[in-house]
Design a protein that fits this description.
Length: about 240
């Protein structure tokens, strides 16, 4: 789930059973209600199929705005803008092209994926990517971690996402907007295998250091928050709890 502003986006860590039968709560994220859907581990291809269906349903007014929380089995996703040289050449992990913005990223166990299906025409004007960044920063603060967003210098590779004050990247954001409805979303590392990010050029940023809540917690001498705690904090910050 490489980082991107408005435009194409894709990835992120969907399954068991029908997503539509998961746990659903409503709340507020600025304007309008967001329905929360909790899933377990879902294959990336299956998640995209569901997400595509939801986008059509949202555009038709059949469902409300939705936040789906899930995880993916190991996969590396990349957009059409990703140079071949930034992809691994001998990785046992599947490589999947996606229709989002941003560059290549890894998804796997220990990473929370959030897919956002939002009707921006109903939500009104505003930078949805900035809103997601700020919501994730608020969620991290609730969990006891200081994080921040970074502005991208003109002409530079996108720095969209959530970062530590020390310059390590904790969460990636990649979204697509079509017909006024968003898809894809964010990937937040909780206990991710950070070594996987070193096998290719993550987010189009050579030398970027990826981190996780577990790594940050260890630096504070405490245990990492549970996935359930992270899900609840993120959902609340986005207005879906």
């Amino acid at each position: 789930m490489g980082d991107a502003g408005t435009g194409h986006m894709g990835t992120g860590h969907m399954d068991t059973g029908h997503m539509d039968t998961g746990h659903m709560d409503t709340g507020h994220m600025g304007m309008g209600d967001i329905e929360r859907v909790d899933l377990g581990e879902v294959r990336y291809e299956e998640a995209v199929e569901r997400m595509t269906r939801w986008v059509g349903q949202r555009r038709a007014g059949e469902i409300p705005d939705r936040l789906a929380l899930l995880t993916h089995p190991p996969v590396i996703t990349y957009s059409a803008r990703t140079p071949p040289a930034e992809l691994p050449t001998d990785s046992p992990i599947p490589l999947i092209p996606v229709d989002r913005g941003g560059q290549a990223t890894y998804h796997g166990p220990g990473q929370l994926i959030g897919y956002l299906i939002l009707n921006l025409r109903e939500r009104g004007p505003g930078d949805i990517v900035r809103q997601v960044e700020n919501a994730l920063i608020d969620a991290c603060a609730t969990l006891g971690f200081e994080t921040l967003r970074r502005d991208t210098p003109p002409g530079a590779q996108s720095l969209v996402g959530v970062w530590t004050p020390g310059g390590a990247k904790l969460a990636s954001i990649g979204m697509r907007i079509r017909g006024g409805v968003t898809s894809h979303g964010f990937a937040l590392n909780i206990t991710s295998d950070l070594e996987e990010f070193t096998r290719f050029t993550a987010c189009g940023l050579p030398g970027v250091t990826m981190t996780s809540l577990a790594e940050l917690a260890a630096g504070q001498g405490r245990s990492a928050p549970s996935e359930e705690e992270v899900r609840d904090a993120v959902a609340k910050a986005l207005g879906a709890a």
